[in-house]
Design a protein that fits this description.
Distance between the termini: 35 Å
Largest sheet: 5 strands, parallel
Number of strands: 5
Order of helices and strands: EHEHEHEHE
Strand order of the largest sheet: 3-2-4-1-5
Radius of gyration: 16 Å
Shape: globular
Length: 159
């Protein structure tokens, strides 16, 4: 079975982080996993969403469940470096994300890497996903990357 890594955009959850974490943990528990590790791939954390500003989200989930990896952030959002082109600060850091996901899997945890974007389309987390998939292929690791919560949607019965 391949290792699964999830992406997530927190848009709209800035004032509801405790509720978000409670829901994510419940879904993961239902899947048979322990609470996930959250990896913040924003290059900076000076944002308006109060639950994700600075180290607020780290305080919500705890230091053991949070990692900030600004090296996987998009340099093009920095003042003086603005561009429409996605430029990952240190692409080689995708190897670190893969290692983190492999270690978490041994502990029955998923890794969810996130940024603020509402949709993955046009977001740098897709670039990061491609980088980590390429690294996994290079290392011979079977990896699947999905937008959290993942899984195939099922059809609801008619009422």
């Amino acid at each position: 079975m391949p290792l699964t890594l999830y992406t997530f955009g927190y848009w709209g959850w800035g004032n509801h982080t405790a509720r978000l974490v409670k829901g994510v943990d419940a879904v993961e528990r239902h899947r048979g996993y322990r609470p996930p590790l959250f990896v913040d791939i924003r290059i900076h954390r000076a944002v308006r969403a109060k639950g994700f500003a600075g180290n607020a989200f780290e305080r919500t989930v705890g230091k053991r469940r949070y990692r900030w990896m600004p090296e996987l952030g998009n340099r093009s959002v920095l003042p003086g470096q603005r561009s429409d082109r996605i430029r990952i600060a240190r692409p080689a850091a995708a190897a670190d994300l893969l290692l983190l996901a492999r270690a978490a899997a041994k502990d029955r945890r998923h890794v969810i890497f996130f940024c603020s974007c509402e949709q993955p389309r046009g977001c740098h987390r897709l670039t990061v996903a491609r980088l980590v998939l390429k690294e996994a292929q290079r290392r011979g690791v079977r990896l699947m990357v999905e937008e959290w919560p993942g899984a195939v949607p099922s059809k609801l019965p008619r009422s």
